[in-house]
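Q: What does the assembly look like in three dimensions?
Context provided by user:
Components: two
Sequences:
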Amino acid sequence: MSTSATLPDRKAAQDAGIIDCDIHPTPKPGGMKPYLAQRWQQHMAVYGGSGHGPHAGGAHPYPLYSPATSRRDAWPEGGGLPGSDLDFMRRQHLDPNNVSLGVLLPLFGAGSSRNQELAVAMASAINEWQLAEFISKEPRLRGSIQIPHEDAAASVAEIERHAGNPGFLQIQLGSATSEPIGRRRYWPIFEAAARVGLPLGMHVGGSSGFPRTGAGWPSFYHEAHYDLIHGMQAQVTSMVLEGVFERLPGLQVVLVEGGFAWAPSLGWRLDRLWARMRDEVPHCKRPPSEYIKQNFYFTTQPMEEPDVPEEILLTFEQIGWERLLFATDYPHWDFDDPRHALKVQLPEARRRMLFRENAARLYGLN
Amino acid sequence: MSTSATLPDRKAAQDAGIIDCDIHPTPKPGGMKPYLAQRWQQHMAVYGGSGHGPHAGGAHPYPLYSPATSRRDAWPEGGGLPGSDLDFMRRQHLDPNNVSLGVLLPLFGAGSSRNQELAVAMASAINEWQLAEFISKEPRLRGSIQIPHEDAAASVAEIERHAGNPGFLQIQLGSATSEPIGRRRYWPIFEAAARVGLPLGMHVGGSSGFPRTGAGWPSFYHEAHYDLIHGMQAQVTSMVLEGVFERLPGLQVVLVEGGFAWAPSLGWRLDRLWARMRDEVPHCKRPPSEYIKQNFYFTTQPMEEPDVPEEILLTFEQIGWERLLFATDYPHWDFDDPRHALKVQLPEARRRMLFRENAARLYGLN
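A: Here is the predicted structure of the complete assembly.
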């Protein structure tokens, strides 16, 4: 975390304060209890969760959400898991990295619980917990509305419950869902998002119950980490080809922690297919790449690192500079330090867009 | 198929004759029968196949291998499916496109049959059929050895049966397998390939029994066409991270019809993970991108088409010019015409590598 290697223009960009679009808070031990009804506290104690994510009590073949995947220096001195101590988060991240605004994305897999009543209760509890433990205590932090996404009606209710609260900036989804996310069963969620004027923040992860590759479960965390990105691409493809953005042209989707270097070639490929097979998807009226450019934002962490660092500039250009949002993924192991994540110098105007202005515009901040 | 728009240098490259690394032959009606034992002919008549691929008789949610996905002008006048009439193939493709050598990849999903005895019989029949109906009749065509890949021992036997025959240039695999292809159960196949000195030709497709996305089955062929590429990437990742190329450094894998613009960023990402987590995969001794650059070839069809056509040159450069093999996918609908597939002019030396020399070197041809 030394600033000694900081280049002058990097420091200048920092002075304006950055918007970090991916911070992961965690409850203190037992910290979620006050937000869960007695009925669900008892259920969790007796039955555990019912889902695929470890936080919902199910088995998971690799430690994607395990605290072991956090930065080794992110464990608060006072105990608890990384991301659970607000004061420590301020001292370790918000203050030294000059984060003027941080977007919280809790990763508890609530929406993936197979017990749908539990999913509703957990999503609601996580929302109340974010407000009480982080957002109301720290004006630099804003939350993401959790929803039990497999139950569209309950999701709409949860969205409407919180949409008027400026403490929430977006509606959170995972990249793994029971069916591809563009299918009709999920549309009430998209309609609610458009109605209340909030973007969707789709973070890699969640669980569908299916393996993440077309050839089953991978062997290593290392391998699984990349397979997550395929899931993100499949979800983008599904939303575009099912016509979600024809129905809701203003809907914006922020893709969080899914990489971005794949986005241009996904657009090329889908356009080429669409040129020949648009009669299969007549509800998708424009070349798919246009929706990708106009309805999606990409957070930068984990930063793509070409062998020739300057080549990342072409990727940024192809995606569109106004579509990129800086993120650190604090406190996870693959944290991108805002001072060192970019291996190239950007013109100051570009840097401001990436680190602050794009997010401020998207989230309606001043 | 008009040549009127042909630019002089494109014509010059053609004059040398191209190597087409992806041609799909199909049997005439009942044409596979002579190569199947009576026992299996009867089995197929009574029970049909037992697998996920339509040619093995199972259901498939989209027509990936359906003849309906062929070029509309590729149906032979004399009847039968596209790819089934050798003389028509000569007149429509080999002659006018100056194909001096074409690599056959039959796509019948034989290896994906759940009935493993049937898979063995089908792989063997397809090999005999290729030899008798195409390779022995047309010196410009060479085959790919089919294997019942879920049964490694039977696969090794089939490889050894044909490896000495110059009519076969490679060993064929699909991109969907019951488990990620780098897992130990498949290593005898890789060891046999290395022993007999043949590359693996991995064509997109096959079936694992799992949906191709981490969120289940997509809705459209259009969507599924891209999801195939994720499967290819997962297989590359699996082979690299399981250490296949540390054990067999000379093994070469040709990725057919899986696109290629994704390859550079896959390498960047895996390298970044490896820098931090190589202790999880100590058998993977070098940065993953090095194996991708040294052990994989990429066929060009379906050609990637950036909005700014010249940007494809950077992608070629990042992958390595010597790793690219031209392919048409004849007779399928997304056939890449050798005269028009590239939207940019290449220096003549690069063009020769792409259209001919790389494949000649890989396959040991003069």
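Follow-up: Chain A touches chain B through 67 residues (CB under 8 Å).
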